[in-house]
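Reopening this one. Same input as before:
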Amino acid sequence: MARREKTPRRLSYRLVAIPGTSNQLVLGIRWQTVLGEDLQKEALRLARKVKATHFVHSDARSPSVGLLVAKGKERRAKTRASLFSA
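Same output, byte for byte:
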């Protein structure tokens, strides 16, 4: 029986280091509209629903949430660096 070679998964996002800081810029966050009275609560509910490892919500004028499902070592990025949406 032949073994199947593992091929690297194609990521839908890219992290770009910001020189001189421990911060990173995230390209490829998926944005979705959030509706409801408490936008923070709805954003968190949606992030949990899609099993996002990171999420960011916009201001009150634009009710949307950015979701990211990080893979591999990027899953731990929240503990060692700040991520910013681009």
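So the earlier flakiness isn't reproducible anymore. For the record, The chain has a mean pLDDT of 77.
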